[in-house]
């Protein structure tokens, strides 16, 4: 009995130390995304007995599968509309683990009208599985999904050439699709691409290598997912610590709590508080009940400093020799998520890490046709549209380019009236005042409007207040 307790404890300890791989699936309608994940769970023996019974019962009821076959997609398509139409609408998450690794899978919809759902599912992913039908190869939707994956900064892609059973497991068909897809990823600057021929319905190369593809010398999909290296996906070079909460349980303790967004911090390291630029050294690093010698992303910790520095929520602790961009103006790629179209005269709330401020969209530089990746003339965005914008914030932000640091390069815009998430954005670069001056700024010509000199001072005060809140207006006297 004692040995059994020890074994269970050792198993739980080992399970706790497994790393986590977040992945998403994307592809055209009927490419087999939900079926692939269902097969992955089924063949890897990660379903409970009641789940198996429900799956077999639902497969008979829905009738999408052949006689006696299991419809693996039903494990993920949970909405009534999804089951009736045989499509994925909402993002479905599934959690499972093997002896090597834990997984969170996001099954994202393939329809263009559900682009925002795919962005939501892929925002935290390390890896993307792009499915293509072996019969049709690389199509417009494949290009769209690959562009979105590159936009999200996902570094690892698996091209899953599905339904190989319908083309007699032809090596020639697979190689043709592989060559065309690699040309696309080279154009987008994606370096880590692995191509796997498989049949999600039949289980070929999903969990085990298939005997029906003797010409394929790679490993199965699950073996790849268990071994793909993701330890360098996080930015461990730039220390960024957005302060979430100031902890003051008693007179003798004052700590700054938050999640390490990137980098590593050691006890005794010199740090700088932003925006005050005041320096100090790390006195202690506390995590739950333990005191640590060092911490790294994405740990949640509490830092105490040797000096009394006024730091509050929304501010940031960094290294003095490694500063982020600091400013109120930046250029970003943005995905519009709201049913209500963009209104550039509206002030939004911008949420960036623990910082919230007012923000305005100054200019739409261009929109992107996600199907052709062509840049179109700028205009206000509608639902699911993507493009490049210039943004001004009322408060100073501390940020990095999204391509370098996802944690400090991402933000969301919130509608102040409905509280809906209006857009998600990925910062490209900071802007200088000269760049902002090139943006069309609303102008008030007081003389043309017939406003007398006696009102100039009052108007000037209003304009200054609006400027402080992030809305720039040019006044001509």
Structural write-up:
The chain is of the alpha+beta class and 477 residues long. The protein folds into 4 domains: 2-227, P-loop containing nucleotide triphosphate hydrolases (Rossmann fold), CATH 3.40.50; 240-318, Translation factors (Elongation Factor Tu (Ef-tu), domain 3, Beta Barrel); 325-437, Elongation Factor Tu (Ef-tu), domain 3, CATH 2.40.30.10; 443-476, no CATH class. It has 11 helices and 25 strands. Strands 7, 8, 9, 11, 12, 13, 15 and 16 form an 8-stranded antiparallel beta sheet that branches. A hairpin with a 4-residue loop joins strand 19 and strand 20. The longest helix is centred in the middle third of the chain and has 18 residues, at 171-188. The protein is globular, with a radius of gyration of 26 Å.
SSE blueprint and pairings:
Layout lengths: L1 H15 L3 E8 L5 H11 L5 H14 L17 H6 L6 E6 L4 E6 L7 H8 L4 E7 L6 H12 L4 E7 L8 H18 L3 E6 L23 H7 L12 E3 L2 E6 L2 E7 L4 E3 L3 E5 L4 E9 L2 E3 L1 E3 L3 E6 L10 E3 L6 E12 L11 E5 L2 E15 L4 E4 L8 E14 L6 H4 E5 L6 E10 L2 H5 L5 E3 L10 H13 L5 E3 L1
Parallel strand pairs: 1-3, 1-4, 4-5, 5-6, 24-25
Antiparallel strand pairs: 2-3, 7-16, 8-9, 9-15, 10-14, 11-12, 11-16, 12-13, 12-15, 17-21, 17-23, 18-19, 18-22, 19-20, 19-21, 22-23
